C-alpha cells in the first residue's frame, strides 16, 4: 500500500542523526499524529532543511513510504510566530518530550494539534506560561484516552486521586501519607474549566498533572524537568 | 567473490570511518596492500598510538595526549575569556577565524531531554567548577544554533546567574555573502531578534 501525505501541517518534535548525512525526524502532523520519517541529506553542510526542520516552527510536509518509517519529500516553513527563548524554550522541550513519550505513532489528534499551537503561542508571548502548560497537559491526557473525570466531583468534598484505577475517591481524613494525592473538589472543578487563577490552584493543578503524567510514564521521569533545576 | 579473512577484516574495519562505504573500503584496502605497504604500517602504528594515548585535556576537555592541550598550556592566551563549545571540531573552527584569543571548554555534546542527555551527561559540572576558580571574567556560549544548543546555553547561563561575570551568546543570523531571499525564516527571525545598533 502506497502511503502519501501531501502538504500536511506539522511540527518537528525531535530529530536524531541517521547514517552519515541523514536524520530521523519525528513529526507531529495535523491529520496523522506522530510520524517518523527519514530526511535524506539533512546533515550535509549545505542542506537547506537543517534550518527549516527545527522544533517549534510551523511546517508543511510531504511524506512517502510503504513501511512504518516514511521518507520526507518536501518541507517548508509556513510563517514563524516568533522564537522560543530562555525558560520558554525549556518549557517547549518539556512539551515535546511529553508528546514524544505519550503519543502513539499514527494516532491522529487534530484537537491536540490546536492545543499544541496554543501552548507554543503562549510560550512565545510569555504571558501565562504556567496556565498554558497546565491546559495543554490536561488536554494531552484527554486526547490520549486518559482524561480525568473532573466534572463528576462535588465542590464541597476532598478527593484522593487513585492513579491505579484512574478515578477520584472521596476522603474524610487527609493523612501525611495521602496528602500529596488529595485535592479539593472546587480545585478539580476549576482545573476541569482550565481556570488557573490563584497560586494555590496552580499548585494543585501542577501536582495533579504531575501525578497523572508520572503514572503514565511508568517510573521513567521526564528528563526536561531536570533543566528547570538550579545546581 | 569473498576475500581472505585478513583482507575482509581490513575492509570491514575501514568502513567504521565516515564517508567510507563497502566499495571505498575495498579500494583503500587494496591500495594499501598492493601499492603502499609502508604507508599501511605507518597508518596502523599512528592509529594504535593515537587510540591508546589521546585522551581529554584536563582543563578544556578537548582531545589531547598531554594533561594540558597546547592551547591551555600556552602563555599567550587570555585566561579571562572562556568559549564554551560542543565538540573538539568546534575549537578548530573558532581557531581558524583568528578572532578569539581566550581559552576553550568542550562540553562533549548538548542537552537533549528526549535522548535522555541531561546536565550530568555532558561536562557542565566541570565547567562550573572551572568558572568558580575565579580567573574567568567572560563566558562565551558558542553551542550550536539549534534548539538543543540554545537550551544548553540557557541552562549554563542560568547556573551562572549568581556569579559576577559576563555571560554572552554568539550571534545567529544571515551568512556572510548570503541573500535574504534565500535565507530560511528561522534564521532571519533570529537575525532580526539579535540586531544591533549602528
TrEMBL record, chain A:
Record key words, sorted: DNA damage, DNA recombination, DNA repair
CC terms in the record's Gene Ontology section: bacterial nucleoid
Taxonomic superkingdom: Bacteria
Record-level GO BP terms: DNA recombination; double-strand break repair
UniProt cross-references to InterPro entries, sorted A to Z: ARFGAP/RecO, DNA_rep/recomb_RecO_N, NA-bd_OB-fold, RecO, RecO_C
Coiled-coil segments: none
Membrane-spanning parts: none
Start and end residues of each DNA replication/recombination mediator RecO N-terminal domain: 7-79
Family as reported in the entry's similarity comment: Belongs to the RecO family.
Protein's job: Involved in DNA repair and RecF pathway recombination.
Entries under HAMAP family matching the protein: RecO
The name this protein goes by in its record: DNA repair protein RecO
Source species of the chain: Neptunomonas antarctica
TrEMBL record, chain B:
Domain Toprim: 80-175
UniProt xrefs under InterPro entries: DNA_Rcmb_RecR (IPR000093), Rcmb_RecR (IPR023627), Rcmb_RecR_Znf (IPR015967), TOPRIM_dom (IPR006171), TOPRIM_RecR (IPR034137)
GO MF term list: DNA binding; zinc ion binding
Domain of life: Bacteria
Zinc finger annotations (C4-type) as residue ranges: 57-72
Function of the protein: May play a role in DNA repair. It seems to be involved in an RecBC-independent recombinational process of DNA repair. It may act with RecF and RecO.
Protein name (database record): Recombination protein RecR
Source organism per UniProt: Neptunomonas antarctica
Source organism phylogeny: Bacteria, Pseudomonadati, Pseudomonadota, Gammaproteobacteria, Oceanospirillales
Amino acid at each position: 500500500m502506497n502511503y502519501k501525505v501531501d502538504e500536511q501541517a506539522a511540527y518537528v518534535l525531535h530529530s536524531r542523526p541517521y547514517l552519515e548525512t541523514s536524520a530521523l525526524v519525528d513529526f507531529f502532523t495535523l491529520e496523522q499524529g506522530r510520524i517518523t520519517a527519514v530526511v535524506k541529506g539533512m546533515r550535509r553542510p549545505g542542506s537547506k532543511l537543517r534550518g527549516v526542520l527545527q522544533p517549534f516552527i510551523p511546517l508543511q510536509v510531504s511524506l512517502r513510504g510503504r513501511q512504518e518509517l516514511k521518507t520526507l519529500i518536501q518541507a517548508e516553513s509556513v510563517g514563524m510566530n516568533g522564537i522560543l527563548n530562555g525558560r520558554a524554550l525549556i518549557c517547549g522541550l518539556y512539551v515535546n518530550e511529553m508528546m514524544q513519550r505519550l503519543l502513539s505513532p499514527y494516532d491522529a489528534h487534530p484537537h491536540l494539534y490546536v492545543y499544541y499551537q496554543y501552548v507554543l503561542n503562549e510560550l512565545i508571548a510569555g504571558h501565562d506560561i504556567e496556565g498554558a502548560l497546565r491546559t495543554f497537559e490536561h488536554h494531552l491526557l484527554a486526547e490520549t484516552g486518559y482524561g480525568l473525570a473532573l466534572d463528576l466531583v462535588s465542590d464541597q468534598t476532598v478527593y484522593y486521586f487513585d492513579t491505579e484505577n484512574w478515578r477520584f475517591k472521596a476522603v474524610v481524613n487527609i493523612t501525611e501519607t495521602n496528602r500529596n494525592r488529595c485535592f479539593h473538589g472546587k480545585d478539580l472543578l476549576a482545573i476541569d474549566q482550565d481556570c488557573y487563577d490563584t497560586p494555590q490552584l496552580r499548585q494543585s493543578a501542577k501536582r495533579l498533572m504531575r501525578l497523572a503524567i508520572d503514572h503514565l510514564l511508568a517510573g521513567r521521569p521526564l528528563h526536561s524537568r531536570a533543566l528547570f533545576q538550579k545546581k | 567473490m569473498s576475500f581472505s579473512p585478513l583482507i575482509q577484516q581490513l575492509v570491514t574495519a575501514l568502513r567504521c570511518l565516515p564517508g567510507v562505504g563497502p566499495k571505498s573500503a575495498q579500494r583503500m584496502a587494496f591500495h594499501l596492500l598492493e601499492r603502499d605497504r609502508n604507508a599501511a604500517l605507518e597508518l596502523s602504528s599512528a592509529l594504535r598510538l593515537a587510540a591508546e594515548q589521546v585522551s581529554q585535556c584536563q582543563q578544556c576537555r578537548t582531545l589531547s595526549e598531554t594533561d594540558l592541550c597546547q592551547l591551555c598550556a600556552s602563555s599567550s592566551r587570555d585566561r579571562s575569556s572562556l568559549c564554551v563549545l560542543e565538540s573538539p571540531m568546534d575549537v578548530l573552527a573558532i581557531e581558524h577565524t583568528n578572532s578569539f584569543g581566550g581559552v576553550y571548554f568542550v562540553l562533549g555534546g548538548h542537552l537533549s531531554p528526549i535522548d535522555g542527555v541531561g546536565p550530568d551527561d555532558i561536562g557542565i559540572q566541570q565547567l562550573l567548577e572551572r568558572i568558580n576558580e575565579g580567573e574567568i571574567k567572560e563566558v562565551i556560549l558558542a553551542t550550536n544554533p539549534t534548539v538543543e544548543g540554545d537550551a544548553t546555553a540557557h541552562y549554563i547561563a542560568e547556573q551562572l546567574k549568581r556569579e559576577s561575570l559576563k555571560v554572552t551568546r554568539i550571534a545567529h543570523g544571515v551568512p556572510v555573502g548570503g541573500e535574504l531571499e534565500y535565507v530560511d525564516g528561522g534564521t532571519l527571525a533570529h537575525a532580526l531578534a539579535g540586531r544591533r545598533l549602528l
